[in-house]
TrEMBL record:
Keywords: Membrane, Transmembrane, Transmembrane helix. This is DUF2798 domain-containing protein. The chain crosses the membrane at residues 9-28, 48-74, 86-110, 130-150. It comes from Fusicatenibacter faecihominis. InterPro entries: DUF2798. The keyword Transmembrane helix applies. Signal peptide: none annotated.
Length: 161
């Protein structure tokens, strides 16, 4: 877990990159019904704007709310680091899935694949589909990988507050 604001920002940049990239591939693959290099290319093309949007939502909106909820209802500051990481990760996934599913629905409409009258239906359909992918991706792959990579690149005490 990051120890200060600078570490938190670096960690968020890394985690957000990983999650947005792989969730973009997943969503484009679901939309096209296939997974190939063309799908990865299409996901990469839409990635920069989605990443910027997700970073802003994560940093300015979701992170504080998720940590507040986790530390108020799920864990205490003195809890084991593993429990804190799991609690905060779960609390981050739920609102980010809701927000990014809305972003995906808007993207589908703007790209011309759907009409504005379908926005709510697309959004509501995207939420469970994205949640069943994002939660395991976060808990089993992204979380352990990014936490390990982060500490390898930035050992404790090297990023000053």
């Amino acid at each position: 877990m990051p120890q200060n604001k600078r570490e938190s920002l670096i960690f968020t940049v890394m985690m957000c990159f990983f999650m947005v990239f792989f969730m973009s591939i997943y969503n484009v693959a679901c939309h096209h019904g296939a997974l190939n290099l063309e799908i990865v290319k299409d996901a990469w093309i839409g990635f920069p704007i989605a990443y910027c949007f997700a970073m802003c939502c994560d940093w300015f909106l979701v992170s504080g709310l998720a940590k507040g909820f986790a530390f108020r209802f799920l864990v205490k500051p003195e809890s084991e680091p593993f429990k804190k990481a799991i609690a905060v990760s779960c609390c981050m996934v739920v609102p980010m899935v809701i927000i990014m599913s809305f972003y995906g629905a808007m993207e589908a409409i703007v790209s011309g694949g759907a009409g504005w009258n379908q926005l709510l239906l697309i959004w509501i359909t995207n939420i469970p589909r994205n949640f069943i992918m994002a939660l395991p991706l976060q808990l089993l792959i992204a979380g352990p990988f990014i936490r390990g990579l982060f500490r390898k690149l930035f050992p404790e005490g090297t990023v000053l507050a």
